[in-house]
Write a structure and sequence with these properties.
The chain is α+β, with helices and mostly antiparallel strands. About 50% of the residues lie in helices and about 20% in strands.
Length: about 450
Amino acid sequence: MARSTRRRSPARRRLRRLQLRLTAAYTLITVVGLACLSWVVIRTDDRAREDAEYDEMRRRASVAASLVYYEDDRIRLDGLQDDEATTGTPQILVLEKRPDGGPVTVFRGRTAQFAVAAGAIDAMARSAMEVEGPVRAGARDRSGEPVRLLAVPFYHDATDEVAGAAVAVGDPERGAAEHRSLVLSLVVGAGALTALAAVTGHVLSGRSMRPAWQALEQQERLLADAAHELRTPVAVMRGSVEVAAGSPGGALDAHLPRIRRAADRMADVVENLLARGRLEAAVDTIRTEPLRLDQLVEEVCAELPESGPRPRLRLEESVTEADAALVRVAVRNLLDNAVRHGRASDGAELVVTVRGPEVWVADRGPGVDPDRLPELMERFSSPGGGTGIGLSLVRRIAEVHRGKLTVRARPGGGAEFVLRLAPARSRPGRRRGGGPALTIRS
């Protein structure tokens, strides 16, 4: 029930939605960045492929134009027949300018790969002859497929006038397979990087929100502890007041002890909750200082109700470094646990021992299996209507003092809980013996 309530918590849903938004934003930024980068790479590769094709066309056309010469005022093309520049792709055509009109094709490469309209070839040759330099343009063949055209003029040997042009016809699909492979690689790589970015963004957003999750869990635990712990004493006080109000005069005095015990119980619960909130929220550091542990335990035992059992004390002078307020809460919870579950009928049954940095609380209850101690130190796991958070709080206080809480079977029946704290560290300049006695500061 508690787990489903936590899942339905509006605060948890808001945090989850925030994490998803952060993941989506991180992924979207990655997608946009990769898309822009991929577009630049694809565009650059396409332009480089186009420039490489035109460079090859210019080279072949220039070689072809240089092989054309005139002898006795007649054009000679014998140098073109066996040259590699006129074989294969790009295809080379040579057009000669005629005095009576437009250019006429006088040479065509042996490999005729493109059926380009004669008008397009003539237009390119005229353009090159007019500007007396290389010109290039795009066109389409008779089947509608795109082709590239580049023309280079050549000159008459005797007059140095423009005599015609060599036209190269190139294929735009040349190198397209490598270009498509690059595009496919970019798409697959961008997809993989996007997925990785989504997972990474989800993990990083979860880690960045971990303090918020922890704060929310601490708040929920504190509220759950308060609701669980305060319910019983409030019910006792309310029932006592209602019974006293419905009874004839003088009945209130009979119920006052019960109301007082419930009020004391509420005070202990509130102090436990405040101590737990302080430890889990870490609102301040643990204020450790030299502490007479035996004096503190003696004071806590003196605060037990007079109507209850009085423990037998075995106190050795002990100095430790600890937070007195937290240690007081831990000792009180151990005593409360022993009184409630230890079946102590007199002081001989309840023994409290201080030995070094350890506090031993022994009772004559049913005993505790040491293997079950972790389970009993979970919240709301204390049997028999106990505090619910008492032992878990004692364990937490022991941990922040670099100690631990253990339990063992007591000879003759019962259990012995041992709270161990860190021993006092030696300080430079401290006198060995004969020094003033340390007092409790809480």
